[in-house]
Fold:
Amino acid sequence: MTESTNIKPLKKIIFFGIILLCLFSIPKVGLSNFWLHLLDMVLINAILALGLNIVLKTGQVSLAHAAFFAVGSYGSAHFTLMLGWPFLVALLVSSLTCGAMALILGRLILHLKGVYFILLTFAVNELVFLLAKDLTSITGGNTGITGIKWPHVPFIGVIGNKADFYYLALVVFLIVFFSLYIIYRSPFGRAMDSIRESESLASATGYDPMKIKLISFFIGACIAGLGGSLFAHFTRYIAPFNFTFWESVNFLIMNIIGGAFSIAGPVIGALVLTPLPEFFREYVLWQQTLYGLVLILFMRFLPDGVVSVFVTFYNFMKRTLIDTFQKRIN
Amino acid sequence: MSYILEVQSVSRQFGGLIAVNELSFGIESGSIIGLIGPNGAGKTTLFNLITGQIPVSSGNILFENTSVQRLQPYERVKLGLARTFQSTILYNDSTVFENVMRGLYASHPPSWKSYMTGSRSFAEYKNKQEMRANELLDFVNLLPFKNSLAKNLAYGHQKALGIAIGLSSSPKVFMLDEPVAGMNAGETEQISNLIRKINRSGVTILVVEHDMNFVMSLCKNIIVINNGKKIAEGPPTEIQNNPDVIAAYLGVEDV
Structure:
């Protein structure tokens, strides 16, 4: 377990204020469409990885995350194109649809432990993938859905380019990030940690494991739905190949490499992993092998992910500086 | 006779193996009761049936005259039935203090409203739990170790922490699964005293143990089981002289 850091609240606020300012200024620098596309995808992936993070927090390793991602995407596309709903309504309803799906599915499989649960989620993901391919009238089958509209937001109008979309994605990301931050520090966060570390002990002290896992599974699915909707209205073309088992694994890798124990972990994971396929275009065939290798190395040598390196470094610096000052004073 | 905990003709089968065979007994409120028997007698299974980790095949379990055999473990905890684990399950990567806090938060959940509004009532709740955690740690003499990680504690202290976590739900009946396994005479004496202290504060105790000296000196009544059936029940002196018990069990030195 990592040491907690104790910075004064005011310093924290200033720190985050500066970060927020930088985040909102990024598109102003004048980036090319290529970089803007990457940036927007980083935000969407970060949202999705955060959604998986809360599920992992109860100790349930889910490979069904891409399935919820799919339902969010196809749902939002369907609601806006076929039913003509406004974007924000479609965003919320597809998110809640994923949540409802999670409640039903969760009730059936969340009592399963370890590898049994993983296998069932894998099966669910495959099922949704096959449905996406076969229900041609709803999903457009293998060719998918084209012509999904850019989002339209009241008082702002149409968000019609990648730079403007960045702000929309950033706002959703920040809402998700801070919501999870509050949840993790709440008594419910403590409950999730307890269930993850020892379900036997947690239930023997009064926690209801199914209720806690269901709530986290629900929240994770809703977040995935948000990401799915954003994705659909950003790329404006979705097809089954976007939602394979490999995508689920991708979100898991982001959490592990970034550090699943911390809320910054999945964000860092998304930041690191999203651009990689672009820079390894020639080596696409090796990509999966490479990912597998990196995953194994991380699990062996850096199981708490990249964030743990920062935390260790920060604590090391703090201790070194304190020691140096004390020697000076004495 | 009104028992605080009553087992009525409880059976548990695992396929062809009958681990617990129509077992019945009652525990009076405020007493310390021992449950003994040779290895494989069904003690652990019976223990898990009462606390809810395993469902019964047939029979009733009554807690304060309420039927509980269909309830989940956490529901029985809410009614006032707590337990410790033979293998001493702890939150290994958390501090001693955090371990007890988790026990307290589990059994005394706050309202979401008070947390979200950041109101004073949540701050009061937090302070109250922290105070209770310190009290519990002091009660089991673990206060000096409150910031140590659970996995780094000495074996005896880990057992004490397990007891503190069990007490955090303010139970009416506290069930201890081999609380002195692997301890020397001095440590065993300390745990004995601790259990008496807990009992004096009004908690009914049920102990499963192999250490005969410990059980005979601590318990008011002893229930002996063998092959899933109750073979004797009574005060220590009776049990020690019971020929069936001697035949099945006694005479074997505690390990």
About this structure: Residues 1-80+203-255 of chain B form a domain with the Rossmann fold fold (CATH 3.40.50.300).
